[in-house]
Design goal:
With 122 residues, the protein is mostly beta strands. The protein is built from no helices and eleven strands.
Length: 122
């Protein structure tokens, strides 16, 4: 079993920045694609970004391209999401997840963190 723990969420003013962290414990997450999902109030959980096991490839949702950056440090079993120029539409619970494939849907991810709330104020 792999346990994932997000941290770094909080309240931030629009235009500001925030960095989320995801720490893995138990079995190493090195062999997994790591994704960040978010779920805003009343909306479906959506894939924000995903990064390959070696960090060579990453994709982003159109809504966050140019503003968010995903990275991973396999030696530390950590994944990061740097969020910049935050907008009110970014308000959501953010989840770290691990997939054995380059998954694009939540069902393709086997392990999930508990989520961390990001609230962007106007």
């Amino acid at each position: 079993q792999v346990q994932l723990q997000e941290s770094g969420g909080g309240l931030v003013q629009a235009g500001g920045s925030l960095r989320l962290s995801c720490a893995a414990s138990g079995r190493s997450s090195r062999g997994y694609v790591m994704g960040w999902f978010r779920q805003a109030p009343g909306k479906e959980r959506e894939l924000v970004t995903r990064i390959s096991w070696n960090g060579d490839s990453a994709t982003y949702a159109d809504s966050v391209k140019g503003r968010f950056t995903v990275s991973r440090d396999n030696d530390r079993n950590m994944v990061f999401l740097q969020m910049s120029r935050l907008e009110s539409g970014d308000t959501a619970v953010y989840y770290c997840a691990a997939s054995p494939t380059f998954g694009v849907t939540a069902s393709e991810y086997d392990y999930w963190g508990q989520g961390t709330l990001v609230t962007v104020s106007s």
